[in-house]
From TrEMBL:
The gene is l(1)G0020_0. Signal peptide: none annotated. GO terms for biological process: rRNA acetylation involved in maturation of SSU-rRNA. It comes from Bactrocera latifrons. GO terms for molecular function: 18S rRNA cytidine N-acetyltransferase activity; tRNA binding. GO terms for cellular component: 90S preribosome; nucleolus. It comes from the Eukaryota. This is Polycomb protein l(1)G0020.
Amino acid sequence: MVKKKIDNRIRVMIENGVKLGHRTMFIIIGDKGRDQVPILYDILTKSTVKARPTVLWCYKNKDEAISNHGRKRAKKIAAGKIDVNDADMFDTFRVSTTIHGRYYS
């Protein structure tokens, strides 16, 4: 995976939200948006005092929800049946994070 530099304004927005105690919401649009969530979460965990902040995952279509296949894969990674190096970044994010999924219309 090729790493690209994230715009500094995103990092500043996350750090200001943590410092002021405000919630920060990002709307990610695009095919590869799912791959950007772990990167933003990593920035959040580096700037917050709380060890593991939770994530609210909002989705409009049922296809965008975290599927049962993904949950089963996350359980296998947590149990050690799948090597963490073989798993992609989103799978390891899903295992190590408390995600609350909500449907909106």
